Amino acid sequence: MDTLEQMLQDIRLEAEITAPYTGRDHIDARVLAAMAQVPRAHFVPAQLRHRAYENGPLPIGHGQTISQPFIVALMTDLLATRPDHRVLEVGTGSGYQAAILARLVQRVYGLEIVPELARAAQARLHALGYDNVEVHVADGHAGLVQHAPYDGILIAAATPQVPPALLAQLKPGGRLVAPIGQPGWSQTLTLLEKRADGGFNRRDVLDVVFVPLTGAGDTAE
């Protein structure tokens, strides 16, 4: 059974292996420290807790998954967060990525379209003391305009293109990280940086596979 320390070692190793593609041979120390402080075992189903620290995705029900730890670390690293940042996370799932972000930023707003997952994630995060996270039952295509603009946006589900509402809700100078491509195929983990003129600089980072971003674009509640 893998341990938390083994998971962190696996993340460091995979960062070195993928450096020719990602352009970074290590994960920022703040991100690794956050991952060391978040017990991933609390965010996976009870029957899978013996596999919680494997460096791979795991099912969490409703056709959704908790992402591979290295991908969580990489996406968080690419956001380049600061303690005063406010971040929108699309596809909260079990709440693991939100918990990592909560240790790095001022406020996290999570969107999850599956009501059962959203409510369980909010309860779990509250029980673990992450009081700077709000999880909303909502279709991520529309974002969360009432708290925009955001310093960073992380989309944890595959989308053929970034929904326009999310692009509009990102601050100038902000970063958006998302797996872009057709669901059912591999996607490209992509970093978008918003310029002062409203345009975007794009960098393709790594081939990945995510579950699809679902919904029709209207917020659920």
Written description of the protein model:
The structure is a single chain. The protein is α/β, with parallel strands linked by helices and about 220 residues long. It has a single domain, classed as 3-Layer(aba) Sandwich (Rossmann fold). It is about 30% helix and about 25% strand. Strands 5-4-3-6-7-8-9 form a seven-stranded mixed beta sheet. It has a two-stranded antiparallel ribbon with strand order 1-2. Helix 1 crosses helix 4. The C terminus is likely disordered.
Give the helix/strand class: alpha/beta
Strand order of the largest sheet: 5-4-3-6-7-8-9
The overall pLDDT average reads 94
Domain count? 1
Task: Work out the helix count.
Answer: 7
The percentage helix is: 25-40%
H/E element sequence: HHHEEHEHEHEEHEEE
> Do you know the CATH topology?
Rossmann fold
**CATH homologous superfamily descriptor:** Vaccinia Virus protein VP39
CATH architecture: 3-Layer(aba) Sandwich
Quick take:
This protein is 29% helix and 26% strand. With 221 residues, it is an alpha/beta fold. The N and C termini lie far apart (40 Å).
Which tags fit this structure?
7 helices; single chain; 221 residues; two-stranded antiparallel sheet; Rossmann fold; globular; disordered C terminus
